[in-house]
Here is the input.
Amino acid sequence: MVEEQETARRRGRGARERILAAATALFEAQGITATGMEQVAARAPVSKRTLYLHFPTKDQLVVAYLRHLVEAGHTMESVLDRQDLPPRQRLLELFTVPDPGAGPIRGCPFIDAAAEFPDPDSAVHAYTRQQKQRFTERVIDQVRQLGAAHPAALGEQLAILADGVASRSMVFNDPACGKHARAAAAALLDAAIA
Amino acid sequence: MVEEQETARRRGRGARERILAAATALFEAQGITATGMEQVAARAPVSKRTLYLHFPTKDQLVVAYLRHLVEAGHTMESVLDRQDLPPRQRLLELFTVPDPGAGPIRGCPFIDAAAEFPDPDSAVHAYTRQQKQRFTERVIDQVRQLGAAHPAALGEQLAILADGVASRSMVFNDPACGKHARAAAAALLDAAIA
Here is the structure.
């Protein structure tokens, strides 16, 4: 009986993970609004009943997709966790555009999602704002640890540069702008720490 | 006869303008993919036949909408045309987020459109890339006129900051990040011109 419950739980968790993997692949390849719930169910694959048991609305699926990116470390924020790098280097690594693998370079998933859900009060847009706020606070915290003057302003400037790189490398499908942002960030850091 | 042709031409042009105005309002309020051609026709208002006579595909309508923003001066690039401002001030004005009026702050329409059309080879994504390239070249040109060292790198850095502000002010629905980017841009300009 316990074993049966365990099997059911595993199967349930497997379905949730498959749904999130399918949603991630489809949202990244074609955009969120362009992706229907039926397409997610077909790709997972799960029945529509199972999909709606896990995610009663598409908004809930989109927020879960964004949260999963954070939890799995698939965001630019994850470089701030790299203990193998000194703090200054960690901040400068924000400007290395990750290799997209086979497909085109994608933008920041939070900016993209906010653009697709323009109402600032919608659940999806509100989640992207929380995440951006959290990311910015982490950057400010690392800037403060470096002993920089005006850490709040400088941290915001580095976050603006990082978001600009994410958007532009997606538009150009070219990571080259990252090195210019990194040089700007290094100059701003140097001026604030001198 | 000439008068009839003239009336028909005016009516035709009126329909095109109404379609573009309707598309702009709907794309900005709810996103591009979320907006159907039928909705655009209903809002314009024009018959679907008239809509498809002017724009045989949705891609053509989206590219025309983006081009119209540029031609009508409804982009951040338009501050570079302001002859009432000295060149340095013009560049710093890139970081003033325009008052959105009644609705929420919208992001850069070219970044948003590129995010909704992820394929870099699609007509819409390609148009956004051309426009971003043109904008960046204009910024570089103004930086060069100021006598700054390394104008190409500095112009790219200012464009990255401007795009970061556009995306973040949309996510936060708050123009406050503009002043931080302006301070960073001023510091980078000062260092390059000294």
